[in-house]
Amino acid sequence: MEQLQLMKERHSVRQYKNDKIEKAKREKINKCILEINRESDLSIQIFYDEPNCFNSFMAHYGKFTGVANYIAIVGKKQEQEKAGYYGEKLVLKCQELGLNTCWVAMTHGKTMAKVEKGQKLLIVISLGYGKTQGVPHKSKSISELSKADTHCDWFIKGMEAVSLAPTAVNQQKFIFELKNGVVTAKALNGFYAKIDLGIAKYHFESVTGHKVK
Fold this sequence. Notes:
alpha+beta; 7 strands; globular; 19% strand; three-stranded mixed sheet
């Protein structure tokens, strides 16, 4: 399935069934994580059948139920954008495999992630079989999220993908600009805005094939 379609179908899901993730799907996810860690130098770790992380007051406060699998993205403090970029690559891979996910900033308990000196837990992603497929989030318009010095079809397609990017509390605190054929993007002030920017950049690049500076 093409990336844009996966983005349209993927929504945040917080309530999960008890169904285990099958061995074949686990192998595909593990392979994807291995490749991403090699490429990105992040330390992305996955935990299956581990319900304790989301069996906490904060997780219940965040309305999470039935979460038994999660991905922990570990890296240096300044690698938040990278965490968003590669985490979203993984999220869309899970979507392709028929699984549901949710980006989780603070509403989880203690993870089993191994965090080395100089690293920190940047973000967590829940995954599994959702009780529902979730609902679309409210998006800002392309004109609110971007500016361009010329009309360009691939830029508009990229911005459609960006508008579908999940962000903390749906804030979409970033701006993309097309100028002299070059695309740049920057985060505005906001909660987890650098992670959000990384997610949005992945959406743009994977749909258009154009790099974002």
